[in-house]
């Protein structure tokens, strides 16, 4: 190692000789992940860093989860189609309306301002900006699109004001809430949001995000566990909270939609909730109807992903739980595990059930779409 | 039955294409060292076209957490991501026998040929 003989700046040398100083907190910074870290990784870890839609290339990796599906989690064929332009309204039109034969597409985005931890006033401003962007860039590009009001649940009264503001747009049909896992939405603290949704004729829709923790054991070790469990466990917890806190009875015109949780858990949930309400009704005596009845009327579970059941198995599940009103169709465009309309246009399903799954069940809980009923 | 598909020089190493062997949709690929392989071009899960997916080396592991990039190539389905070994058609991780059919493939007078159907 070379030894420097350069003199220290005036004043520094005498201090240094007089007193040894050890700074125990100095932060070096990378200039570039791709130059500083990537070449030092073995090939398998380079795949994690570059192909798994990993968001940890910056200084903070705390909330970054490698997603072991290439191409940013989008379906490869759709991604190829959008390679030059990105997923624009024009690409959406081509995929959903032209290729899949979808009539009305409800936008849920992926901008979960309710998931911000702290800086709620900033989150409120971000939410309002996103809502305006959604209206101007997406909804006004195509009358077949419908939209959501994105709100910050931590600030329920501001959320209610935002719902009143954005709901003036006729293509807004629902309030969007991420299925966060640090609080239960049935808590009366959040009821102003439901009050505002009901008075504006909107539904309330829930969808998980990468902030959705899996279970009481915290974040699992592998993405597979997270993706299989987190969305459905979080949805079940929030649904149980809405039911036990009497939200459905307090807001009798309000419908709720849970997205992307799969379908097969629903019969079990209905049976187990009904059973608990019968033997522990004194725990929540303000609830006067069985959860399964309320679910058939005003809870909707989106069908995607249907990749883990056959059409016949799905039909059997519906019959077992008398749940033909509970499910609503969704693609999850443009994500890798998106479903096609072909799955539910299967002629082996009874025509009346196809009608319910593809449109009628959604119309039942989305008041602003009821004029579309044929 | 033999089917003549396309000129071999049109398929670069490390790439795959779709072809039609009579009524059978076929995926033909060339490995990094120029070998040809042919598989049925339909995912057995939800019938997606496999050639629209990704061709890359499989991620393998000798023990939990011991990730490695393996030597064998797989085709990853563009829809739900099922992975099929190009040598055997076997779906990785599917001990229930899920697989796609493989076909004998060779070059004859500069043309790629398969035995299918």
Oligomer: heterodimer
In this structure, how is the largest beta sheet of chain B organized? Answer: 6 strands, antiparallel
Largest sheet, strands/sense/barrel of chain A: 7 strands, parallel
Share in β-strands of chain B: over 45%
The overall pLDDT of chain B, averaged over residues, is: 95
- Poorly predicted sequence stretches spanning 5 or more consecutive residues of chain A: 1-5
Global outline of chain B: globular
Strand content of chain A: 5-15%
Helicity of chain B, in percent? under 10%
Radius of gyration of chain B: 14 Å
> Reading side by side through the largest sheet of chain A, how are the strands ordered?
1-2-3-4-5-6-7
Q: How much is the average pLDDT of chain A?
A: 91
Task: Set down the secondary structure blueprint.
The complex is a heterodimer of chains A (374) and B (117).
Chain A: H1 12-18, H2 33-36, H3 43-51, H4 76-81, H5 89-99, E1 105-106, H6 120-138, E2 145-150, H7 156-166, E3 172-178, H8 191-199, E4 203-207, H9 223-244, H10 247-250, E5 256-258, H11 265-279, H12 291-298, E6 299-302, H13 311-321, E7 327-328, H14 351-365
Parallel strand pairs in A: 1-2, 2-3, 3-4, 4-5, 5-6, 6-7
Helix pairs in contact in A: 6-7, 7-8, 11-13
Chain B: E1 2-7, E2 16-21, E3 24-30, E4 36-40, E5 54-61, E6 67-76, E7 83-85, E8 102-108, E9 111-115
Antiparallel strand pairs in B: 1-9, 2-3, 3-4, 4-8, 5-6, 6-7, 8-9
Question: Please, could you describe this protein's structure?
Answer:
The complex is a heterodimer of chains A (374) and B (117). Chain A has 374 residues and is α/β, with parallel strands linked by helices. Chain A has a 7-stranded parallel β-sheet with strand order 1-2-3-4-5-6-7. Chain A is globular and about 85 Å long. The N terminus of chain A is likely disordered. Chain B has 117 residues and is mainly β. Chain B has a 6-stranded antiparallel β-sheet, with no helix packed on it. Chain B starts with a strand and ends with a strand. The interface between A and B is medium-sized, with 19 and 16 residues.
